[in-house]
Amino acid sequence: MANIQKTEAIVIKTQRFRETSRIITLFSEKFGKIKVVAKGIRSPKSRFGSSLELFTNCNIIFYKREGKDLYIISESNVIHPFTKLKNNLESFTYAIPVLEFLNLAKPKESRNPDLYKLTLETLELVEKTASKNKFQIFLLTYLLKGLRYIGYEPEFKKCIKCKCETDNLAFSIGGGGILCASCGVGETFCLSRGSLTILRKLKKLGLNRVRNLLVSKEQGREITELLKRFFIYHTGKEMKTIPEP
Ligand SMILES: [Zn+2]
Description:
Blueprint lengths: L1 E16 L3 E8 L3 E7 L18 E9 L5 E10 L2 H5 L1 H17 L7 H16 L3 H18 L20 E3 L4 E3 L13 H12 L2 H4 L6 H19 L10
Parallel strand pairs: 3-5
Antiparallel strand pairs: 1-2, 1-4, 2-3, 4-5, 6-7
Helix pairs in contact: 2-3, 2-4, 3-4, 4-7, 5-7
Bound molecules: zinc ion.
């Protein structure tokens, strides 16, 4: 049985399929991550035009079929194409990991409106920004908040073992947070004071308010390393597109 569904979505992956079609992976507002076939999209007269290119925010109509995990898309209308973001190499480089995060992390078809909103907001901010340092801050904030929305929120205030408030710098990747001086004996991963302060701020502040934080190259590298290792440990998958700070 097929039923017609409408949703807003963001294109997060596209692959060639058969002679003239593509399989499009979308992160949708109503259904989470879905895969659809866009029939004939690679022929010049396709009704889809450029509405299903990577990053495009669109309204789609598709046929949801019980027992299948590949649906047929019948219509797509562009809300925002993110052309400027795609045409600038630097913003493109920092926006690609956002799509990679969604491709790797999200289980299929689970609605996640907070993550959807965060994704759109991040891409919009990256598109409007012209400074490399800010691209990096937006990306790190996205990854940190994104981890929360998929259920792996790192803890930076209380010791994950004894729950005391601590400023100790030992961080347990597997345990998911910082450890106080007595619980953290022997822990090998240590943050710097500056990085811990930044991580706390990135977690607390909204995307709009992180833009003015100053992150040194070394801190950027350290926070990136932490988030990458954290992601691998908890999802079993490696993010490969995050740029080196
Ligand atoms: Zn403790």
